[in-house]
């Protein structure tokens, strides 16, 4: 018996290999580099690997446009148009998000605990703080998460889907628990995210087992073939598909699988919140798109009514509950739940414009989300006694009058909020327009109407915050209790990129939309 | 003894695991429930592999074991960190984050 070495097209895997490879090198840097050198080396490694991944995606696009895409590793990873678009978007938004993660204040404090293992309030924590320890492990962890996210939408079988889900989730569970301030909240958020996330991935795995039992294969292409032939095992298939979708809808934070979102978004270090709010959602919707459009289209009439329901409930619950929030991070969390609903409207359209509109929406939403949370990470409380800058001022009332003292920053935040609300000339408007018109095209006009009503209601709480920032005087305590912290400047670069992206996608969307509709073709 | 019995057993184990997650209070036990769910999926995979005469399901089971081990590392790290802070591993005690 002779062993035949498999043929692997390494070039098609280049974006994934670059990011995961940089993660592995990052672990070695943490183990062997002198402490002072670690942070600059990590930042360089992160930027180079993600920029390299973007270049690799652009180079791969030429071949994919010519031949429609390739199956790599025996069909485990499918490199086609949507895969490349999503990998590019994930690398771009991830890079912008990691700029915020890498930033630190003028007193050289980053957003992460000096030693995440130290008990909060202990002598050891104080010692670690005084010695100036830093948790530079966040960079390799974030790169591993990004690598998993880049595999997620490319997965060509259920096993790869599950492994990618875990590779992207496990680092995020840890990153959630590493906040420098309010560490109890951070640890609590980490535990909730972990337990619920592992619970959801167990559902996904059991669903994968049932679908494997139905089709006799975990490959998407084989499953799609088996699905289109009627058989008496259909209950197995429907149950399995529903369980898989539960696992994926949990990751995007769709109602009724959303209960972790507000707690985790509030407790996690704010740069990490922005990072995972943007990129996790992009990756998970990429996986949902492939599953719904390629693997299960023959099940349309079994699954679609359920997905319509999820989309409606997600939009309504996200919007209504966001109105009553008093914490900025929680409000943005519920707003992100509502956005998951809007994206689902594009997903269930089941037309080719549905795919491209979802891709566009994810790009616009990702850039605005990273920018918005970057600004939240800058607005801080001032300790009343010592005058020291402490944790983030996340209560809505603390934001009153911010626009009078920091007009540029508040203006940028207002722009992101307007983009979330879907006001014309922002990327959010174009995205919403695209997904709703895709739904109309897919004979789901009623769903588009629900979406329009929900986004009209959502305008209320976005505009309320803008009014608070610009037209309300700082209330109660002296205005100095809230300040904007000075940093090394990376956060401002990220905010600037977010602003430019949001405006460009709003003013000149047609080249991007045209490109996406070319790219939105799945491998069979 | 037909192979279908193994599938029934897998379903029962999955249900027990899910119930454990939902009703138990201790984070370690909740985590145990999740592991039970993963392993019930393994049993289903292996049984289906036998039914179809196909090795994929057995290979998947190996991958899932590795993932479960990685999940234990991350999960216990988080639970132990919480326990050292609060001297409690009850999921009812972690209630600072509320709307």
UniProtKB/TrEMBL annotation, chain A:
EC number, UniProt record = 7.1.1.-
A Pfam family cross-referenced in the UniProt record is Proton_antipo_M
**Ranges of residues in domain NADH:quinone oxidoreductase/Mrp antiporter transmembrane:** 155-455
Listed A to Z, the keywords are:
Cell membrane, Membrane, NAD, Quinone, Translocase, Transmembrane, Transmembrane helix, Transport
Record keyword Translocase present: yes
InterPro entries for this protein: NADH-Q_OxRdtase_suN/2, ND/Mrp_TM
Subcellular location, record wording: Cell membrane; Endomembrane system; Membrane
Q: What does this protein do?
A: NDH-1 shuttles electrons from NADH, via FMN and iron-sulfur (Fe-S) centers, to quinones in the respiratory chain. The immediate electron acceptor for the enzyme in this species is believed to be a menaquinone. Couples the redox reaction to proton translocation (for every two electrons transferred, four hydrogen ions are translocated across the cytoplasmic membrane), and thus conserves the redox energy in a proton gradient.
Q: What is this protein called?
A: NADH-quinone oxidoreductase subunit N
Organism the protein comes from: Cellulomonas carbonis T26
Q: Which family does it belong to?
A: Belongs to the complex I subunit 2 family.
Q: Per the UniProt entry, what are the Gene Ontology biological process annotations, in alphabetical order? A: ATP synthesis coupled electron transport
GO cellular component: a single term? endomembrane system
Q: How does it sit in the membrane?
A: Multi-pass membrane protein
Q: Which residues cross the membrane?
A: 12-33, 40-61, 81-102, 138-155, 161-181, 193-215, 235-260, 272-293, 305-324, 331-352, 358-379, 408-425, 445-472, 493-516
Main localization (coarse): membrane
Query: What does it catalyze?
Result: a quinone + NADH + 5 H(+)(in) = a quinol + NAD(+) + 4 H(+)(out)
Q: Assembly and interactions?
A: NDH-1 is composed of 14 different subunits. Subunits NuoA, H, J, K, L, M, N constitute the membrane sector of the complex.
Automatic annotation (TrEMBL), chain B:
Q: What does this protein do?
A: NDH-1 shuttles electrons from NADH, via FMN and iron-sulfur (Fe-S) centers, to quinones in the respiratory chain. The immediate electron acceptor for the enzyme in this species is believed to be a menaquinone. Couples the redox reaction to proton translocation (for every two electrons transferred, four hydrogen ions are translocated across the cytoplasmic membrane), and thus conserves the redox energy in a proton gradient.
- Look up the domain of life of the source: Bacteria
- Supply the EC number(s): 7.1.1.-
Query: Its family?
Result: Belongs to the complex I subunit 4L family.
How is the protein disposed in the membrane?
Multi-pass membrane protein
Location within or outside the cell: Cell membrane; Membrane
Look up the record and give one Gene Ontology term from the biological process aspect: ATP synthesis coupled electron transport
Q: Which InterPro entries match?
A: NADH_UbQ_OxRdtase_chain4L/K, NUOK/Mnh_C1-like
> Gene3D superfamilies from the xrefs?
1.10.287.3510
Underlying gene? nuoK
Spell out where the chain crosses the membrane: 6-23, 28-48, 60-83
Query: Cellular component per GO?
Result: NADH dehydrogenase complex; plasma membrane
Any one Gene Ontology MF annotation carried by this entry is: quinone binding
Q: What is this protein called?
A: NADH-quinone oxidoreductase subunit K
What is the protein's species of origin? Cellulomonas carbonis T26
UniProt subunit comment: NDH-1 is composed of 14 different subunits. Subunits NuoA, H, J, K, L, M, N constitute the membrane sector of the complex.
